[in-house]
């Protein structure tokens, strides 16, 4: 990342992972398969279970990269600090590797959206300076949100986690991030599963002797975007990290890059109402 710290190149997503044993077991399974990166968030309502999975894995805390995110109802300086306390308590961790602002305050909802995002960011900077969060970043920020934030920031965001998958590449945001040395992470790299029966991807998967999920994940990596595939199924969790023994050819990369819009959530950070 732009702060010199390293981040494992595939992470386990935990959005829509049911709380309780399912989440505990998914995290333990991933860590035993070799994942060293878990992507969590307060709003996923499963952080206590994610934390238990980490604790029960037997893998030293220092070897695991853990991310969480401050939810939209906790924007602003004081609320963000309080949200961090709750998240770190729920996860049972005294520091996080990465803490993200989950969604930007948007002009659609708040005339003073820039100020709200800056206040949230000041709290993130404080947590970073206190050593409670090793890296800080954002999620779902588009260039205009980033531009307004960076203008008065003391620390650059290390990461922008956005929706990114075949059929939805957000080229303007990715270009902005690359120009500013901000690492792009992909949420829903499989289009929340909507891409798994895509005929174009199935053809490429067959040619490579891999699954569609592996093609989507590998495609992210070859674009230097960090994928965060979610699964609660042991065989899929394992499959999703077995993506280092093959390469998608430039011709197939071009075919995927040219896919028309598909698999998207339809969520526009400037239009959300949550
Ligand atoms: P499950 O969690 O039941 O295993 P995304 O990461 O884009 O959000 O996609 C997550 C969805 O894709 C979940 O429904 C998940 O199902 C499914 N999924 C994850 N990995 C695979 C895989 N390797 N093969 C098929 N489906 C997968």
List the helices and strands and how they pair.
Elements (H helix, E strand, L loop, with lengths): L11 E2 L7 H13 L3 E3 L7 H10 L8 E6 L6 H15 L4 E6 L11 H17 L3 E7 L3 H9 L7 E5 L7 H9 L3 E5 L11 H10 L3 H11 L3 E2 L6 H6 L10 H8 L17
Helix pairs in contact: 1-2, 2-3, 3-4, 7-8
This protein binds adenosine-2'-5'-diphosphate (A2P).
Overview of this protein structure:
The protein has 274 residues and is of the alpha/beta class. It has one domain: TIM Barrel (Alpha-Beta Barrel), CATH 3.20.20.100. 39% of the residues lie in helices and 13% in strands. The protein contains 10 helices and 8 strands. The chain has an 8-stranded parallel beta sheet with strand order 1-2-3-4-5-6-7-8. Strand 2, helix 2 and strand 3 form a beta-alpha-beta unit. Helix 2 crosses helix 3 and helix 7 crosses helix 8. It is globular and about 50 Å long. The site of adenosine-2'-5'-diphosphate (A2P) has 18 residues, from helix 9.
Distance between the termini: 30 Å
> Widest sheet: strand order?
1-2-3-4-5-6-7-8
Question: What summary fits the major beta sheet?
Answer: 8 strands, parallel
Catalogue the ligands.
Answer: adenosine-2'-5'-diphosphate
Instruction: Using the coordinates shown, work out and report the CATH topology.
Output: TIM Barrel
Structural class: alpha/beta
Shape: globular
What would you give as the CATH superfamily? NADP-dependent oxidoreductase domain
> How many DSSP helices?
10
């Amino acid at each position: 990342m732009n702060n010199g710290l390293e981040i494992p190149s595939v992470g386990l997503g935990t959005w829509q992972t049911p709380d309780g044993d399912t989440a505990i077991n998914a995290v333990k399974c991933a860590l035993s398969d070799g994942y060293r990166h878990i992507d969590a968030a307060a709003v996923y309502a499963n952080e206590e279970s994610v934390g238990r999975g980490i604790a029960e894995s037997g893998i030293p805390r220092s070897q695991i990269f853990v991310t969480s995110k401050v939810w939209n109802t906790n924007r602003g300086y004081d609320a963000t600090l309080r949200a961090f306390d709750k998240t770190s308590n729920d996860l049972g961790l005294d520091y996080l590797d990465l803490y993200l602002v989950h969604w930007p305050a948007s002009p659609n909802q708040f005339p003073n959206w820039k100020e709200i995002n800056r206040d949230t960011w000041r709290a993130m900077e404080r947590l970073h300076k206190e050593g409670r969060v090793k890296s800080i970043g954002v999620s779902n920020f588009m260039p205009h949100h980033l531009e307004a934030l960076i203008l008065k920031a003391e620390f650059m965001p290390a990461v922008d986690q956005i929706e990114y998958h075949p059929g939805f590449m957000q080229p303007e945001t990715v270009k902005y991030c690359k120009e500013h040395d901000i690492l792009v992470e992909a949420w829903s790299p499989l289009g929340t599963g909507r891409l798994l029966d895509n005929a174009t991807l199935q053809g490429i998967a067959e040619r490579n002797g891999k699954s569609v999920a592996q093609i989507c994940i590998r495609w992210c990596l070859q674009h230097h975007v960090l994928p965060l595939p979610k699964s609660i199924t042991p065989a899929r969790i394992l499959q999703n990290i077995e993506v280092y023994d093959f390469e998608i050819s430039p011709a197939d990369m071009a075919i995927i890059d040219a896919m028309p819009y598909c698999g998207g959530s339809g969520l526009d950070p400037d239009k959300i109402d949550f």
